[in-house]
Write a structure and sequence with these properties.
The chain is of the alpha+beta class and about 80 residues long. It has a single domain, classed as Alpha-Beta Plaits (2-Layer Sandwich). Helix content is about 30%, strand content about 40%. The protein contains 3 helices and 4 strands. A 4-stranded antiparallel beta sheet has the order 2-3-1-4. Strand 2 and strand 3 form a beta hairpin.
Length: about 80
């Protein structure tokens, strides 16, 4: 497996926080994720996850993230691939 680090932007809800807490060992920050103001009535979550499977991410894209976190596709706003230092 080739590791990849991704920064995810997600909708803030119980499903997302449950999924993020389940993959706590992949957090790059001790505090996990940040809740930021979103558009309208909802907030967003931003988190950076390390050591994810690049091959599976490359093949499945958003479906890999949705499956990893056990969230709905609409919960995922976007992602960014981070450069390894």
């Amino acid at each position: 497996m080739t590791p990849v680090t991704l920064t995810l932007d997600l909708i803030f809800n119980n499903r997302v926080t449950t999924g993020l807490n389940a993959v706590e060992d992949h957090w790059t920050d001790e505090f996990g994720y940040a809740v930021t103001p979103g558009h309208g009535y909802r907030d967003n979550v931003q988190v950076t996850l390390r050591d994810l499977d690049l091959g599976r991410f490359d093949a499945e894209g958003d479906a890999y993230i949705v499956d990893l976190l056990n969230i709905l596709p609409g919960d995922l706003i976007g992602w960014t691939v981070e450069e390894d230092a």
